[in-house]
Amino acid sequence: MGGEPIRYEDQVVVKEMVVIRPKFGGALYPEIELEKLGTVVPGGTVLGRVINAFTFEEMEVLKAPFERNYMILIRGPITRVNPGDFAYMCANADIA
User: Fold this and answer.
1) Which of 4, 21, 56, 96 is the most exposed place for a label (fewest CB within 10 A)?
2) CA–CA distance from 39 to each of 18, 51, 85, 93 (Å)?
3) Residue 28 belongs to a domain with what CATH number?
């Protein structure tokens, strides 16, 4: 078990990452598709919305926090979330 580690040309090392967690429970309606996983999206991009499943009221808008966001984790189709669940993971693409 020795030797040198394999280093890939397209490897991305992130130095700053945020886990975006909703403050409210409800239905999470994603606004970006799974195809955006591993890509960079601009700051302020709406990632998803938390909707009250009973009243259909918009409870929260989840946005990309950095100027340029490397998408690490994305929720798939409409799903139920509880307060504090993970919804998205974004890394700061400017320092990755």
Assistant:
1) 4
2) 15, 26, 23, 9
3) 2.40.50.100
- Is the pTM higher than 0.90? The answer reads no
- Alpha carbons 31 and 11: distance in angstroms, whole number: 27
Q: Please name the residues in contact with 55: beta carbons below 8 A apart, sequence gap of 6 or more.
A: none
pLDDT of residue 69: 98
User: How many helices, marked H, and strands, marked E, lie in the chain?
Assistant: 0, 8
Q: What digits encode the pLDDT tens for the residues 9-64?
A: 877 888 999 999 999 999 999 999 999 999 999 999 999 999 999 999 999 999 99
Residue type, 32: I
- Residue 34: which domain range? 17-92
Residue type, 89: M
Percent of the chain with pLDDT strictly greater than 90: 81
Residue 22: what residue type?
A: P
Joined tokens for residue 2: 């020795």
